[in-house]
Structure formats: structure tokens, C-alpha cells
Amino acid sequence: MVNDFNLNAMNYFEAVARLGGVTKAAEELRVSPSAVSQQIRQLEQQFGVRLFRREKRRLLLTLDGERLFQTTTQAFRMMRDVRSAIQRQRENRHFNIRVSPSFAVRWLGPRVKAFLDHCPDWDLRIDAAPNFSDFETEVVDLDLRYGEGQWSGLHTECMVHDVVLPMCSPDYLATLRAASNDPIGQLRAARLIDSVKTHYRWDFWLAQRGVMGERMIYPLRFDRSSMALQLAVDGGGVVLESSTLALNELESGALVPLSTAFEAIRFPAYWIACPARHTNRRIVRIFSDWMRSEGRLHDARAAALITRLGCRIRDETGPQVPGAQFIGPLPE
């Protein structure tokens, strides 16, 4: 029975057999030579055999001792290896995520401290990059990405919805209203800021509403939502963008809806994506749970704000007509 083994005595025996003497074993184990000798005697009494024989002041293993040593040295080596692996894992608790850049800066960044307060013992690395992760060649635990969630072979789950609507600064809106009382007329007079990596771009949005014409121009195109939003805040034009990314500006009044005549479009937008095996990692499960909670709070806050601003919200799953600009996983 395993309970019959004196592991302390086995440890002493292994050290004596490996080092070739009681004194050397005692030095390694930091005990007295007499304590080592006593443990060896107890082990020999337990097995009923001699484990060592003495020749010219040297201790040599007997045949039974050699058999026991082969087993114990392998077992103790395995235990030392496991102990080292556990210590390395404890010392290197890293969590690596990749995030769409504007979402990382505007949404995730202000919430990082709350997550770290929740998981203070983990080292967190956030890579705000436009490129989707290659999980087979890169050290990435999960990707938090804008898109439709249709990434083949990966576990995906929507964490945050988006609400898109035309927005501009209050001063720019006043200029447009001075030119026309009609929202369509205001659009025709506006400088349109185009975010080129979003679900809903001006071409698609205008075509849905039959707002087209030679006077419609949008020479300002950005591949970062944060840049397009900042230009709108500065009074540079009207942007069709994410209330998720512009929530603070909408709450402060730095941005306002162009018109309550235009519905805001809500759709699942920000997803976690990773190989299914990564979901077995404790930190991935913790982060996913935290994101679900934060996402629900954000979605409720955004919906309440848009409604308070007087806009109706229509739920969609993404562009539904031929020629829509969204094609596959996009970085923003």
C-alpha cells in the first residue's frame, strides 16, 4: 500500500544512493549524518533487506538497493519537474489579448483598471492592432475584434453591441440648420466624414434612405474611427459612426445626432474570438465573464442615452443589401 511507504526515508535513501555517501546526503538535505543513517536503517527494516553494502569506506547499492534506487530516482525527478513547472506557471501568469485599435483606446482602455482590480495577480498585455490574430503562430490568448463573428474554426461570442447614427458637433449642426430645415437638405449640404472600416458606411446608409445626388461629397476618409470622431468633434463634418466609441462625447454634448428623423442602427459588433481550447484557460473564462458583464452595462447605457436624445433604435444583424461595404473580419 502507498500509505506504507515512508517518503521521508525514501528521500534520504535516494540522496545517499545518488551522492554515494551519508555525509554528502546529509549536507544536501541539511540534516545530521546520524539522522540520515537512522532513516536508512528504518527503510531496510521496513523492506526486510539490505540496501547498501560497505566496501573500503564506500557505500555500494545491493541488488535490491539498485532496484529501489532506479524507481525512486525516477519518481523524485518527476516530482521535481512538476514542482518546477508549477512554480514557473505561478511566476509567469501572463494574459495576452489583441484588440481592434479604436475599441482598445476608447472602450477597453478606460476599463482596464477595473479588470486588473478583479485579477491583480495577472500580467496583462494588450496589443491594439488592426490585424486579426494567427493563433497557431502567435502568443495570443484571445482576440477582441470588430466584425460579424463568423471566423471559421474559432470560438466566438458577441460581447458588445454597437449603435450607429450620423453625428456632428453642435456648432456644425447649427450651420447646417441655417442652410436648411430639412434633414435631407442638411445632409446634402454637409461634409461627410467616411470611416472606411465600419459595418455601415455612407454609401450603404445613404442608398438605404434614397439620399443620393451629385452634391453628396465625402472627401474625408479615415481607417481609424477615433480619428473620424475627433474630426467631427472639431466641427469638421458629419460622421456616421459608433456610439459605442463616441459614448462620452454624446453624453457630454460634444457630439449630437444630426437628426432624430434618422433611426439609429443597433447590431452585434464586438466579439471575443479564440480557439476553443483556449476557453479551458481560467483567465480566459474570467475575462469573458467580465466582458459579458461590462458589455451588458454598456449596451443598456448606450440604449438609454440614444433614446434620451430622441432617436429611435432599429435592431439589425449587419448590412443586408448587395454592395454593402462590410466583407469579412475588419480591424476596426
Structure description:
The chain has 332 residues and is α/β, with parallel strands linked by helices. It has two domains: 2-91, Winged helix-like DNA-binding domain superfamily/Winged helix DNA-binding domain (Arc Repressor Mutant, subunit A, Orthogonal Bundle), CATH 1.10.10.10; 93-332, D-Maltodextrin-Binding Protein, domain 2 (3-Layer(aba) Sandwich). It is 44% helix and 20% strand. The protein contains twelve helices and twelve strands. The chain has helices at 7-19, 22-29, 33-47, 63-91, 101-108, 112-118, 170-179, 183-189, 202-208, 225-233, 247-252, 282-308; strands spanning 52-55, 58-61, 94-99, 123-128, 142-146, 155-168, 192-195, 220-222, 238-242, 256-257, 264-274, 313-315. The strands form two sheets. Strands 3, 4, 5, 6, 7, 8, 9, 10, 11 and 12 form a ten-stranded mixed β-sheet that branches. It has a two-stranded antiparallel sheet with strand order 1-2. β1 and β2 (58-61) form a beta hairpin. α1 (7-19) crosses α3 (33-47) and α2 (22-29) packs across α3. The radius of gyration is 33 Å and the shape is rod-shaped. The two termini are 62 Å apart.
Keyword list:
single chain, 332 residues, Arc Repressor Mutant, subunit A, two-stranded antiparallel sheet, 44% helix, disordered C terminus, DNA-binding transcription factor activity, LysR-type_TF_proteobact-type, DNA-binding, LysR_HTH_N
The CATH topology of the largest domain is what? D-Maltodextrin-Binding Protein, domain 2
Rounded to an integer, what's the Rg over CA atoms? 33 Å
Q: Approximately what portion of the residues adopt beta-strand conformation?
A: 15-25%
Named at the architecture level, the CATH assignment of the largest domain is 3-Layer(aba) Sandwich
Which regions have little confidence, pLDDT < 50, spanning 5+ residues? 319-332
What shape does the CA trace take?
rod-shaped
The arrangement of helices and strands along the chain is HHHEEHEHHEEEHHEHEHEHEEHE
Distance between the termini: 62 Å
Q: Class by helix and strand content?
A: alpha/beta
Largest sheet: 10 strands, mixed
Please, what is the average pLDDT? 85
